[in-house]
Amino acid sequence: MEYGMAAIRVFLQYVLPALMVGGSWALSVLFLRTIKQLQDRVVRTEQELKLATETWTRSMTAMGKEIESIADAAKHPYTGSDASVTRRKVIKMHRLGSSAEQIAKALRLSKGEVMLLLKVHTIILRPVEQTAGGRDTVTLEQKS
Question: How far is CA 63 from the centre of its chain?
Answer without folding.
Answer: 11
